[in-house]
Predict the 3D structure of the following.
Amino acid sequence: MAANGAILGAIRQMLHFNEPKSKFQLRARWILGAAFALLAACETPAPQKPPVPPAPPPPPAAATAPSTVPETQKPAPPARSATLQGTTWADLPEWRENDPALAWSAFLESCSVLVNHDAWRSICSLAQRSVKPDRETARRFFEFHFTPYQVVNPDGSGEGLITGYYEPLLRGSRRASERYRHPLYAAPDDLLTIDLADVHPELKGMRLRGRLDGRRVVPYYDRAQIESGKAAVRGREIAWVDDPIDLFFLQIQGSGRIQLEDGQLLRVGYADQNGHPYRSIGRWLVERGELPLEKASMQGIKTWARQNHGRLIEMLNHNPRYVFFRELPGDLPGPLGALGVALTAQRSVAVDPRFVPLGAPVYVATTWPNSTKPLYRLMLAQDTGGAIRGAVRADFFWGFGPEAAREAGRMKQSLRMWALLPNGYPIAEK
C-alpha cells in the first residue's frame, strides 16, 4: 500500500506538467488507467483472467452437411478450468427433449460475427449453409461440433442467478415541453473512456471512465450531479420523455423505443455510462422497509414511485450509474447487444464475458418467472450488463411489449448454465 502511495504521488506530480492540451489529454488518459489499476490492485483482488483465450484454428470441419453428421464420432476429452468444466450431453437436463432448431436463427446472428474468428470460422461457415434445419439436424450439428462445459462459480458450486430484461416503449418528443421534460443524453464530449488493456493485458475487457478537472483527472459525474446540470450534457439531448421512472428503467434495460408525439418511432441503444457502480433501487426499498422482498419487482418499484412522488429523486439517486444513448436504425429486427448483433426474444441472454465467451451458445436450466415450472433452453450469449457479474449469472432477454415487460420484471430465478464451445477449444488451465 505504501508503495502504491508513492507511485500515485509521482503520478500527481506528472499531472502538473505544462504541456499542450492535446498531449496532456493523452497523458491523462494513460495516467487515469494506471492510477485506477494500482488502486484496484491495492484494495481489491485483481480481475480473474478470462478462462477462454483466443483460439488457434481448429481442425478442418467435416465436409458433410449437418443432416449427414455421423452419430458415432466422439470429441477428445474436454479440458477443465476453474469455471468451465467439461461434461457430456447427457448431463444437460432435458437436452434430448429440447428443440435446438428454435435457436438456429439466433445462432446465425452470432455467427455473423464469430465467423471472423479462427476458433469459430469452420463451424459458422458450415452452419450458414443450413438456414432452417429441422430439430434432429440441429441437435446432431451441435452434438457433433461442440463440447458442453458446465459453468461453475470459482468455489465450485453450480448454482447462480438469472434475471430478465426487455425492450421498453416510452412516450417522448424531439423537443422539450411541459409534458416532455426528461432528456435522454448522448455521451458527452468530456467523458474519458480508458481501456485498461493498454495498462496491462490481464485487464482486457475492463474500462474506466473519468474527466479532466483543470490539470486533474477525476471520476465522472454521478447521477445526481448529471441531473442537476453539472455535466457537459446540454446540447446532447436525443429526445425528451414524459416519465422519469420509465427513463430510469430504460437505462437499466440498455435499449428501447420511443413513440414520438408526431407518430414516429425512435429506437435508441446503449452508448456509454459514467463509470459509477450499479446499485439496486429494489434492494434500497427492501432494506428501508418500503417494500417486501416479494414485491421488489420492476412493477412493484414503479407502483411505489407513483405513490411516493416526493421521494422519487432520492430513490433514483441511490444508483449513481448513468447511461448515455445513441440513436439506432429504425428497421433493426431487435435491439443491438454487446456482440453487435440484433437480439432475439427469448433466445438471447446477457452474460459476464470474463467467464462465458460472447457469442457462444449456452444452455440454461432455470424456472419460469415466479414459478417452479422448469425452463430449459438453448440460448446465445449476445449481450452484457452492468449488473451481470459472476460466472453463473445471466440476464434473459424477453423481447418487446407488455408481456415481455411483465416476465422480465418478475424473473429472479435460480440458474444452472452450460457453455457450448467448439471441439478442441482451448480452456485455460487453473
